[in-house]
Amino acid sequence: MAASETHQAIETVFRIEQARLIGGLARMVRDVGLAEELAQDALVTALSEWPKTGVPKNPGAWLMAAAKRRAIDGFRRKKMLTRKHAEIGRDLEDERDTSVEDVEKALDDDLGDELLGLIFTACHPLLSAEARAALTLRLIGGLTTDEIARAFLSNEATIAQRIVRAKKTLGNAGLTYAVPRGAERKERLASVLEVIYLIFNEGYSATTGEDLIRPALCLEAQRLGRILAGLLPGEPEVQGLLSLMEIQASRLHARVAPDGSPILLTEQNRAHWDQLLIRRGLAALQRAQALGGANGPYALQAALAACHARARRADDTDWQKIADLYDTLRAIMPSPVVDLNRAVAHSMAFGPEAGLARLDEIDPAAGLQNYAPLPAAKGDFLFRAGRPAEARVEFERAADLTRNAREKAFFLARAAACSS
Hints:
Layout: H1 3-29, H2 32-53, H3 59-77, H4 82-96, H5 100-107, H6 114-122, H7 129-141, H8 145-151, H9 156-172, H10 182-204, E1 208-209, H11 215-231, H12 236-250, H13 275-290, H14 297-310, H15 319-332, H16 336-350, H17 352-360, H18 373-384, H19 388-401, E2 403-404, H20 405-417
Parallel strand pairs: 1-2
């Protein structure tokens, strides 16, 4: 294998193993920031050694062993407690004689999944809600600061500073790595759900790059959601989030044409929607509603997705119900993005002029000035209202704002269609 191919393979393996690696290391060294540094050190070591020796059969275990060795060296240099040194040293010796499965089992915490344990740790009450989500997306989702900034409708410098401050806050507090239990776990649940959904959204509609979707992120978010739902079956919003992700993921690949361009929801081939995921999503929604959580933010969004999932044809979609659900969601969880989606629903239920009226109600200072979906929606409303010249301007603005190559081409195509 050529060196460049080996480097690419190493980077791919690291992206896959990164979150679990950091989670396992954090459980041992009791410091999330140090765990991330050790994981990066292991990657540097792999980039140096694997081109000469080849990619090992168990790359995840190799990276963990390399990170553990680095941790031991660090503890020696800093003259840390002999007990801690011996404990990690024994773990390393044990790993040499056991399988990867045995190592993973030994590292499991009471949540049964290191990634969730790491999410709960990053979502500590000492941090603001924004900092918790940003830090966890960086550690678990492996997103860049730019991608996180797009998810938060913020800028890269702000997010980078937020992540650095979050790590320092956790480190300066002298906290040990611990999975919360009881009331403390429940307090952090809202932030955990937010993080999982942000990871899913980045996969469902990539903010940057050449690809419209990043299925691996969606799958990871769904996996985390399923584990959390199994561990907390009585939490309606956990079931609501799981329902929302399953239903949204059911049409993931129908959203993209063979050339990679996006396909509007109303134009998708519904025969390509994954019926198994739809059934799973509807079942989770039913559980959320049975638990009394029908008006929870995630359950409401899942109910919106279910309206589309139940419609065999686009023309069968109950847009009146969708508009009503958005009215309820806006009252429970007000946000500029909800307002934008509500405007879309009203445009479909009551006509494009109604959608334009709802857009006019959105506060100009709400943070959507540089959000590509806003001019894209306005362009669609204007086009359907018979105002193509104005629509073209909006589609061109959307193309200028998006950082995703596929979206840009799509918006430019819609702008060109306004002149035909």
